[in-house]
Request: fold
Amino acid sequence: MADGLSGNLVQLPLRHLLKMLAAGEQTGRLELRSGLELADLFVRAGIVVHATADAAIGEAAVSTALGWMSGSFRFEPGLLPPEISVTAPLEQLLAEGSRQVSERELLRRVIPSPDVVPRLAPTLPGESISISAAEWEVLAQITGEATVGQLARNLGRSDLDAVRAVYSLKMAGLIELSMTAVAPVTVVLAGEPFFHALQAAVAAAMGPLAEIIVDDALSDLGFTRATLPRTEMSAIAERISSEIREPGKRSRFQQAMLAELRSHAA
Amino acid sequence: MERELQQFCDIPHVGGAFVCDNRGEVILSSHPAVLATVAMNAIGREVGRSLLALEASGHGGLRLDYAFDSWTLFARELGEALVFVVCEAGVDVARVRMTMEVTMNAWQNDSRAQKRLAGWRVERKQLVIPPAIDQNGYLAWNFVQSENA
Reply:
């Protein structure tokens, strides 16, 4: 592993990767990317000792990264952690990661996204109901217009915390959920003509494996040809360009893609 | 070179671009200038010093991206000079970075651009020699050097 290791989280999920690094008593930095989210995990002699994932740090960051079902990773051996933020053993980290993944799945079945709008139920299911102080704080903010995400921001909590409270309130029969107040978000997709141009430019720069290279880059960023938004076209082009070693070919590829991006913007 | 700099302004949310020599003084700018000359000079000096410090500590880099609340500054090392692009929030970062790479590649392969850059050539280390640097900065520079000697 002296030259590093890179790959796809779909083919090699993080939990297996961490077990592999532990078995090999590796030291270094594991860089993870899933869509627009980034995480850095540092292992020392196979033990995870520091982790950051967006705003999260320590064990919470490891749990966040363990929940990523797709994305890419790169391990750089030899790099030491800037600080120690993880003290739990690997088994405990994996167990907590699994628990959080299960919990998120359970929550997702009832609250598919933070865009759901909670409303007070017109009647209560029983004579008396007990709720926690945290749930009351959320209940007191429910207006019938604010989404779960907006409630979280109003209360200075994470989306996950607000979703947990809303889930409990829903299970207690105190609220109903609806998506009606949310305006649909229109995502303009890149479309097939962009992929024709991209694949032609990749083929000119990197040869006959263009189709695979494009699909791998899409997968690394958490997209497919059917889901890539127009706003991410340049990110895919930049990612592929970073893999083109020969400067002249890289520059020609970038010029072709910049012209393509300009044509889409026009 | 002016034409290439001006092309950055065609990218939505890009305020402008400029080039500083290794003393930090602005030598080329898109028109109208994105910032006051004094501000561009200050950016050129501070980023030049950052690059020197990174180089002295064994982390020499060619690109630095500074993300602030409402704007982003992209800086690239061009050997004899530093290239800067100033952007507002919402800019297509990947497009700016690719455009910078294409532009710098074009300048590096253009003999006229190279000749102009050679005419502005100065040692970047002048930025960390008094009186170009204040006492605290000079102490910090000596600390970086001694830590990595």
Notes: The radius of gyration of chain B is 15 Å. Chain B has a mean pLDDT of 85. The longest strand of chain B covers residues 14-21.
